[in-house]
Design brief:
With 430 residues, the protein is α+β, with helices and mostly antiparallel strands. It folds into two domains: 260 residues, no CATH class; 119 residues, no CATH class. 52% of the residues lie in helices and 12% in strands. The protein is built from 19 helices and ten strands. A four-stranded mixed β-sheet has the order 2-1-4-5, with no helix packed on it. Strands 6-7-3-8 form a four-stranded antiparallel β-sheet, sandwiched between helices. Helix 3 crosses helix 5 and helix 15 runs antiparallel to helix 16. The protein is globular and about 80 Å long. The two termini are 41 Å apart. About 3% of the residues have low confidence. Pfam families: GIIM, RVT_1. This is RNA-directed DNA polymerase. Keywords: Antiviral defense, Magnesium, Metal-binding, Nucleotidyltransferase, RNA-directed DNA polymerase, Transferase. It is an enzyme of class 2 (transferase). It comes from Pseudomonas cedrina.
Length: 430
């Protein structure tokens, strides 16, 4: 697909290509826009309120980009409202998403590529979320170091509906202290004020920021950095990943003082601490970014949290439904990216027994799927014998063809074994 940003529509011929331009002009340079479009295209994503996907937007911008660019430069551009959708969460709740149009995602991504190198170095070193060269595992490793040093009480703070409560005036004020380009500030304010379309009706408010725009993580870090700096000034040991913040202290008494401090600091930003999800508690068994800590011979170790394991099993059940109408090979091919991604995220885990149990559980489910797909007892008998099972074992399994789960527990372990799953390409967690 041809890029919607070409030489002739990106910059007028008489516009100089030199340094010293404003941030908005730098964001709209051809090479920056090409990189932004490549990123937006790679991220895919649903259409916004205009109903245009990636391909349709590309065709539209090939003709209309000069007009859009002129509106951006003059300050006349008005972003479309985000499309509000609700998706289920693994724990049974719901999450609201705000999906910008592909055009607005392109513009925001172009801005991000210019703003992030300028703003990111000003953030606290204890902020890890959505920053270049940093990841969730870095945050968890830092937290473990604090616990190992004797700070075994955590002040675990969860902000209630953070993105819905972002105050536009406060955010623009904090952003204005980092960048001086009024055109960029005006455009970002327009994005904040664009509102959301819900059931065909546009709702606007003076607070809230879309969660799923490319700029949203950077803007969240701009707003929350103020709290990070105050914690630094007071000498606290903490880590923050997006709106999840943990402060590690040596006693519950100190923890309650820190909790009171955080409520005041967040209150100044018009943010609210979620009382039901926040706590001053032992650092052991308290989940952080999907991990937990446990103690073995005076060494603090990593583990996958119980909640993360439960969510993992729920997702595996969804991906391996027995009525999906796919061959076992197709099921495994579909399952592989999720397993590899989950294993990479939880690579710090030091509980090999948990990995082995999850591996056995996954193979158990897949054996049951294979039995169901063979259907008839004669087919089960023939296939098992072909795979090396004795006639006695094959006959015993074939006589109970409807008991897929129970039949997958014993004899099939020796026939549909590790080597068999390895040949099908099933990744091992352990």
């Amino acid at each position: 697909m041809r890029s919607p940003v070409s030489d002739e529509v990106n910059r007028p011929q008489d516009e100089p290509d030199n340094a010293g331009q404003g941030l908005l002009e730098r964001a709209l340079e051809r090479e920056n826009l090409k990189r932004a479009w490549k990123r937006v295209k790679a991220n895919k994503g649903a259409a916004g309120v205009d109903g245009l996907g990636i391909d349709q937007t590309a065709e539209r911008l090939l003709c209309q980009w000069p007009e859009v660019r002129e509106q951006l430069i003059s300050g006349a551009y008005r972003p479309s409202p985000v499309k509000r959708v609700v998706i289920p969460k693994p724990d049974g709740g719901e999450r609201e998403l705000g999906i910008p149009t592909v055009t607005d995602r392109l513009i925001q991504q172009a801005l991000l590529q210019v703003l992030q190198p300028l703003i990111d170095p000003t953030f606290s070193e204890y902020s890890y979320g959505f920053r270049p060269g940093r990841c969730a595992q870095d945050a968890v490793s830092t937290a473990r170091r604090y616990v190992s040093s004797g700070r075994k009480v955590v002040v675990d703070v969860d902000l209630e509906k953070f993105f819905d409560r972002v105050d536009h005036d406060i955010l623009i004020d904090r952003l204005g202290k980092r960048i001086a380009d009024r055109a960029v500030l005006r455009l970002i304010r327009a994005y904040l004020d664009a509102g959301a379309q819900i059931n065909g009706v546009v709702e606007k408010s003076r607070c809230g920021a879309p969660q799923d725009g490319p700029l949203s993580p950077l803007l969240a870090n701009v707003l929350l950095d103020e709290v990070d700096r105050e914690l630094e000034r007071r000498g606290h040991c903490f880590v923050r990943y997006a709106d999840d913040a943990n402060v590690y202290v040596r006693s519950k008494k100190a923890g309650h003082r820190v909790m009171a401090l955080l409520k005041r600091l967040y209150g100044k930003l018009h943010l609210i601490v979620n009382e039901s999800k926040s706590a001053v508690a032992s650092a052991f068994g308290r989940k952080f970014l999907g991990y937990e800590f446990w103690l073995a011979r005076d060494e603090v170790k990593y583990a996958v949290s119980q909640k993360a394991q439960k969510q993992f099993k729920q997702r595996i059940r969804q991906l391996t439904r027995r009525s999906c109408g796919r061959s076992l090979q197709q099921v495994i091919d579909f399952l592989r990216p999720y397993l590899l991604g989950w294993k990479a995220y939880f690579k710090l885990s030091q509980t090999p027994g948990v990995w082995r149990e999850l591996d056995k559980w996954i193979r158990h489910r897949l054996r049951a799927i294979q039995l169901k797909q063979w259907k008839r007892g004669t087919t089960v008998f023939r296939e098992l014998v072909a795979l090396g099972a004795s006639k006695e074992v094959a006959q015993k399994v074939a006589c109970n063809t409807r008991r897929w789960w129970d039949n997958s527990r014993w004899a099939l372990n020796w026939v549909l074994n590790l080597a068999w799953f390895d040949r099908l390409g099933l990744p091992r967690l352990s």
